[in-house]
Amino acid sequence: xxxxRKTRALTGIPVGMYIVLALLVISLFWANSRFTHPEASIPxxxxxxxxxxxxxxxxxxxxxxxxxxxxxxPDVAVQPIDTVVTKPSAKEEPLITKEDENVAKQKKEDLKxxxxxxKKSKEPKKTKIGTERKLTAFIPGTMGKAGKLPTNNCKxxxxxxMYITVDEAGNVTxxxxxxxxxxxxxxxxxxxxLKKYVKAEKKTNETSTGTYIIKx
Length: 216
Fold this sequence. Notes:
216 residues, alpha+beta, two-stranded antiparallel sheet, four-stranded mixed beta sheet, 4 helices, 32% helix, single chain
């Protein structure tokens, strides 16, 4: 007697389960291969970029343990702090009031007056001949003195008044016609005679002026 085992066809949900299990096994195998060999997933171009050529690496200099280290010395000499010249700060100008200006103006005027007085004190004192200062020498035949006029070629006759200036030593320094005859010969002769013959008292820091009468 033959026995037959009844089997059911693999259809519907059981077939789908087998397919899902198969896909799960495949994915696990693929993931395992990725983690165990990671370089397989990196492109060749990326691998080449990570490789550094030996010649590009900077060679570090060999340090000699016996040699002394070089010390940097600057070209410009560094001056000590005490010798450094600092620029002085600008001083604040004091406020000048009107009263200060008046005081300064008064001081300036006083100084000017003092200078003028000192200048006058240094100048020779001016006196008058015949009153404050006497003559000690005369032209012969003039001013009531004995003698005759020096020789001359002047033909004019009359009286000639001359003004004269005498210095500290008593010498006549200048002379000129004041009034009287105006003959050029007589005036020239009078100037020459006055400087040659006339003398006055010697007075320190004193000059004198006056008149001198000559009759031709």
